[in-house]
Amino acid sequence: MSRTKVFLFAMAALGAVFLTSAAAIAVLRLNPEKIIAQISADIEKVTHAAPVYEDVRIQYFPWPALVLREVRLGLPSDHFSTLEAEEIRIYLKIFSALWGQLETLRIKILDASLVVRFPGLENSPEFNLEHLTIKVSRLAWRKPMRIDLSGDLEGNAGVIRGFLRLQLNPSDTWLSFAELQQMHFELENMPLKSFQPHLEKIFEVGVEGGMMSGSLDMEKEPGSQWLRCAAQMASHEFVYRTFQDGNLMRSPELNVSWGAQFRYEPLKGEIQVLQSKLEMPFGHFETTGWIYPETKELRDMLVRVGDLSVENIPQYYLPFQRVIPLNLGFSGQSQMEMSLNGPMDHLTINGNWNLYDMLLSYAGYFSKERNVPLDSSFDFLLKEGKTLSGDFSLKFEKAVAKGTFSELALSTGQGQVNIISNKFPVSGWEAMILPLKNNKLQGDLKVLANFKGDLTRLSEAEPMLNLTLERINVLNAAQEASIKNIYASIDYGKLGLRAKQVRFEAAGSEVEAELTVYPSGETPILEGALRSPALAYQSFFKALRNYQADVLPPVAEEAIRQLESWLLRILPPEAVLENFEMQFKRKGNLWEMPVFKFEAFGGAVKSSGGINFENKPPLVHGSMEVDRLNLARYFKDRDPVPMAGNLFLRWSGKGHGVTLEKLRTSFKGTGELSVTNGEVATVDLVSALSEIADLELLEAEVRGRTVFGDIRGEFTIDEGKVETQNLVLKSSEISLRGNGHITLDGFLNYRANAFLSSSLTKKLLLNSSQDLLSQKEPVLGPVPILISGPLTRPEIQPDPVLLPKYRKMWFKGSAYATFDSFLPEEDLLLERAKSS
User: 272 with 225: CB under 8 angstroms?
Assistant: First the structure.
């Protein structure tokens, strides 16, 4: 070994001996009991509690230190529990001790545990720090002290580490935290499942997986008490579960990142958020403003939400499914800005929400496409973080709506909302109202609405809705306004729906309507009416067909089709029904039409009916009364006109089935018929009788038609036939009595007896029967005939069975009673008026 190396080794050994000796001398000079007492007093001065330990000893080598074992140390803050440590080593400055002064060089705390609390937060979450190693160094007046810390968090080894730099002032004790200069802490790969107890208590969720990392940096600004801070946090593959309406639900993997820069003033407890950005799968959130933790207050807190995808929120934040109303759909991104002010238990929220790029839909009725302007502004008050109240407004196309929320409970959706709009044009709305997408709208609309109850399920909430329609035109694809100038006031509430003051034009007909719907069990009671001074019914139904496939349910479409089919069977297509009125009612399975009346062809028609669907097949009943309908006008488009005269008709009956085809064989009823002052152009009774032997002279009286004063009879309806037992016809030339039937297809099959009038009898039998001619009013007959064939042109033939028998009686003076029971038409109308 060289002399140099020997010298250096000797000097090192000598230094070690010197330091050891100095340490021993210093400790002996200070007296161990004095050291323990002094340090315990200093600790108690800061923590307000003396340290408790199982054992204490003085260490001399390699550095003098006070060693405490099994230590319990109280901390002067509600945020921390008692610090428990396996060992605390307090290293002393040797040279200060040689002069009899006690100064700490550094402190080392081994295997410590601590509970960190947040008493200001709801449910006061606590976090367990274990197996901590804490190093306190650079303990000198007016110099920054450094504290290094590392250990376990919630049972996860080595996930937390960091350091503090504290400035010690002469007036401070050696453990003062008043002057924080710098801080840095890291949390690395912390399993989120470790936070399960806290998340379950606060959010009522269970964690199934995920990791979290983050950091916090603080540094004091020169010349002030402010600390400039930066924080970062990121979670990966976070999955949680929760129960909603009794069903277990799991979230998809949620990746979140957050970064913030802010300033903190510890003495006043103020936080100035310079910049904060939260990235989530459904949008990013940027925040600036002021936070006052001690008073739990926000001031000028501005929140900007970008690329907000509302449809994705319920996937990751499962409770949000309770917030979004059922059947309401979102797609696309939107932008939002909010300003938050006030204490957290009385927080005001002002902002606006731009939904320009968002598709918005409700069930199968409404859909707003992207790139259509829709703006919302709001001014809310959030109480205790649980209830929301305040005003909002919506601007959509030329519609402006203002509304108010009253005590909306965010956890249950219970609350009340009022909405009122301006009177706005509906032009262009057909693209968004799906049932009218093939049409075009014109006119104005005003909306007033109130909903009370669970606002997330509007169909279950108590509603009050009023719609006012003015000059609404509904144009079809060919730009034809089959229905136009619609005016209406529609009320909807828990007592039902009522459409009043409804009037519109349909294919040139002015129509008034009313509709009332009362809730009653599963099937509501429905009552309504249609009225028109002049209804071109076929054009009216055609106008309905242009829209009914889009806006009416199938059962209503079928009812309209059956009504149109029935009218087409009894009325010419071009008929205009004057003073038209139809009343209808539905209660359960019973549909009633108590009034269906109109005036047409100079007469009046009044009918009623109903269908009971409880019967299988359905039971149908109906009645009709026709007063003085002019048949010449009714058949004016026929050439020739088959019949003229004034028709009086009554019938009633019932049967099973809905369609006419099914009613043919099941319908049974009774009625009476009268036609006055008319003629049958397609039938000439005189001509038919002139072909019978002995009546050839009647050929001179042939006119090509049958003119009559009255046709009358009572009838029954059964098995698809209208059967008459006492049909009577009276004219100036011939009277007739018969019986038979008419099928619903219009085919006749009658047997009748004809009687010649007195004047015609005298002309025919002038030289044949003096006995008959000697009578004051001689009548020849009966002449038995058969009438059969289509109603429009029946065939008349003599009855071959009865004719020989009755011919023998014609010239023997056997007189038959004629028909003297007929009432004049005026008396018939009076009798009808009395009976109705």
Answer: no
Nearest to 360 by CA among 332, 389, 395: 332
Cβ within 8 Å of residue 104, ≥6 positions away? 39, 90, 91, 92, 93, 139, 174
The rounded distance, in Å, linking the Cα atoms of 248 and 797 is 87
The conformation of residue 100, written as its DSSP 8-state character, comes to T
737 token code pair: 């009595």
Q: 172 phi and psi, to 5 degrees?
A: -95, 160
Rounded-to-integer distance, Cα 680 and Cα 684, Å: 8
With tokens 């705390």, the residue in question is 109
Report how far residue 599's alpha carbon sits from residue 629's, in angstroms, rounded to the nearest whole number: 9
Q: Which uninterrupted H or E stretch holds 238?
A: strand 227-244
The DSSP string of 694-707 is T-GGGGGG--SSEE
What is the helix (H) or strand (E) element at residue 213, kind and residue range? Answer: strand 206-220
Residue 754 CA to residue 803 CA, distance in Å, equals 11
Cα torsion 62, 65, 71, 76: sign: negative
Contact (Cβ atoms closer than 8 angstroms) between residue 707 and residue 819: no
Nearest to 264 by CA among 232, 242, 291, 284: 291
Contact indicator for 670, 684 with CB cutoff of 8 Å: no
- Name the pLDDT band for 372 (thresholds 50, 70, 90): confident
Three-state DSSP at 282 gives coil
C-alpha distances in Å from residue 266, one per residue of 164, 177, 178, 203, 225? 15, 11, 9, 29, 7
Angle formed by the axes of helices 3-30 and 32-47, nearest 10°:
70
Contact status, residue 334 vs residue 354, Cβ threshold 8 Å: yes
Q: How far apart are CA 26 and CA 105, in angstroms?
A: 14
- CA 814/CA 805 separation, integer angstroms: 13
Q: Radius of gyration (Cα) for the chain, nearest Å?
A: 52
Could you list the beta-strand ranges (E) of 601-720: 603-612, 619-630, 643-656, 668-680, 706-718
**Residue 834, C-beta contacts closer than 8 angstroms, at least 6 positions apart:** none
In this structure, the chain runs to a length of: 836
Which token pair is 754? 């004809």
Cα 44 to Cα 66: distance, rounded to the nearest angstrom = 16
pLDDT per residue as tens digits for the range 438-491: 778 899 999 999 999 988 777 788 889 999 999 998 876 666 667 889 999 999
Its sign, for the CA torsion 392, 320, 384, 412, is positive
Q: Which two tokens stand for residue 426?
A: 């509906």
Rounded Cα distance between 340 and 350, Å, is 7
For residues 596 and 584, give the distance between their C-alpha atoms in angstroms, rounded to a whole number.
9
* 8 A C-beta contact, residue 662 and residue 615: no
Average pLDDT rounded to a whole number, residues 73-92: 82
DSSP annotation of 635 reads T
Distance between CA atoms of residues 260 and 278, nearest Å: 9
Q: Which two tokens stand for residue 100?
A: 């009899």
Residue among 29, 85, 100 nearest 60 (CA): 29
- Residue for token pair 């103020």: 270
From CA 608, how far away is CA 513, in angstroms rounded? 18
DSSP string, 36-81: HHHHHHHHHHHHSS--B-SEEEEE-SSS-EEEEEEEEE--SSTTB-
Cα–Cα distance list, 819 to 436, 708, 750, 806 (Å) = 63, 13, 19, 19
| 3-state class (DSSP) for residue 739 | strand
d(CA 189, CA 158): 10
- pLDDT per residue over 24-78, tens digit each? 555 555 566 777 777 777 777 766 777 888 888 888 777 788 898 999 987 766 7
Residue whose pair of structure tokens reads 């349910």 in the numeric block: 553
Q: Per residue, what are the HEC states of 563-614?
A: HHHHHHHHCCCCCEEEEEEEEEEEECCEEEEEEEEEEECCEEEEEEEEEECC
- Exposure of 430 in the CB half-sphere (CA atoms within 13 A): 20
